[in-house]
Amino acid sequence: MNKIISVGFIPFLALCLVSAVTHGSTVQTADSSGNLKQGISVDVTSAQPISSHGRLYLVFSPSDKEEPRFYSAWPTSNVEPLFAKDIKGFTANETLSFSEGLAGFPYKTLDAIPHKKWFVQAVYDTDFLDSRINSPLNFYSNVAEINVDDKSKQALTLNLNQQIGEEALPEEERFLKFDKMPSELLSKFWQNDMFLKVGVILPKTYFDNPNATFPVVYDIGGYHARYTRAKNLYENKAFKDFWFSDDAPQMVMVFLDGEAPLGDSYQIDSANNGPYGEANMRELMPYLTEKYRLIDNGSSRFTTGCSTGGWVSLAMQLFYPDEFNGAWSYSADGVDFRYFQLVDIYNDKNAFINEHGNERPSYRSKDGEIIFSIQREIMMENAIGRKNSFAFSGGQWGGWNAVFGPKQENGEPSAIWDPTTGEIDKKVAKAWEAYDLRAFTEKNWSSLGPKLAGKLHIWMGDMDNFYLNNAMNLYQDMLEKQDAPKSDAKFRWERNVGHCDYERVPMLKLTLQQMQERLNNDSSYD
Predict the structure, then answer these.
(1) How many CB atoms lie within 10 A of CB 401?
(2) Are residues 313 and 415 in the same domain?
(3) Is 218 within a domain?
């Protein structure tokens, strides 16, 4: 059987199902043996030229509760089928076939899609300064319903007749603000206008005295978490009850944005993403300090976050030890690259297959059951990413690859391992070592240690779903061996607890109160 799917770009026309002959009639074709074969015919056409290169996606969903274009990017057993290909744009009235040159996940070819009813949608991504499939100004189609069976050949035309709007800041409230500032450093790096965005929650007494200044906590979310999450927290009743109580610490909360052209910036300088760390320290923080009346010294700044935010909060404290007065890190991404999840990037030969010849897991349930492997996750990101490579996917592995890895001479990220085979590139792995927090901390301990006194607060579940507890064990072991000076880092381990597996508001309340206690005991705090 041979099924072909075609996506048509006809601006401002309605989505339609058409037959290869006329008016919804069914076309049946036969193979060389005379047996009927089924498929979906496809073309991509444009009535007007589109000069932008891009990646064209076709997403299948078994449900119409949400548009298929909002792809889950979560490679569980029920993940939505996705197919994609790079194209160079359209000339006027050009017709492109969507039957060849596809990357697919979890099915490599269209003819492997199970026979059932599907809801199908197309997206054309042309904005490579935004890592999301649904970037502003990208084109997308309406949703078509189709029944895939083995009886007939159907023709499906999806017209990319809609366009995603520009991203606007959410509406504000008195104690909830959203901000956006241009970054000269990032704009120079990317040769385009680049901006830093934040959400801000102000304390109860903020408007009582116009001359008062406040300490600040920088909150970093999980992978690719946006600054708009400030609104979700602000609208949480339990949080509001605490935040506007008399017992709440009077500090400003700033929510950093995780969006970057190649995934999550991790809020640090990198060869592929550019100077996000310096942009934060030299541009964003001075801007926020002046506009929101923040105390302008390191003793009044704190960081916190979980998952990606756990790694970033710790890294910001380590890389800028004088600029922050404490990091509260939860379920941090791999802090020792000898256990990058379960991959030892320095000594293992292959990321996909372990030394026992088995697929290396990526995600597990808390009882240890494997849910998906690294290889399966990379296969998904290869389908999403330009050039059929996870390095351009904007996904978790692509994001790590961009942050930690070197840049090639052609300006593209160097892949830590082969996208297809998983073979690790040891030269690239060596370059990653600069971001290995265990190696960095250990190498610089004599000068770094005194600046970290009382500042490291680390939480981890011993059954982290991504196996991140292994790296944190190594990090704790390293710190406990330090003598000059001795480390006073506080580690809290939870038995049989998974990734970020805690109640958000109670943990945040405890974190903010501990920050306030540190301020109360700091003689430099005004």
Answers:
(1) 27
(2) no
(3) yes
